[in-house]
Amino acid sequence: METINAIGRRKAAIARVFVSEGNGKITINKRELETYFPSSILQFVVKQPLNTLGVVEKYDINVNLGGGGFKGQAEALRLAIARALVKINAEDKPALKAEGFMTRDQREVERKKPGRPKARKRFQFSKR
User: Fold this and answer.
1) For the residues 92-104, what does the mean pLDDT come to?
2) pTM to 2 decimals?
């Protein structure tokens, strides 16, 4: 099997994934998954699509990850892995879609407006 690539985005984070056959090693920006995401919850989020299909020890995953915070990065990586698994085997798509891993969460930060402290917040109104 040749290398399959896919992309995942969430908020400001972008994950580019390269999946090849191997023994379950996940490398993010030339670092191990456990060192890049010390939180076990984020490690779980990243591995969710692999656990759903039961292929954790089947593929080696190499990732270029940038932008955003750690939560956004983990969810971008989850989407990218799910997309790559569907490219490998299209029959897995209904299972991943049912879990919600195929949907791109399109919510972005709203821009700050001029004359206001934040996007929607206003300065305190003074009548006199």
Assistant:
1) 93
2) 0.90
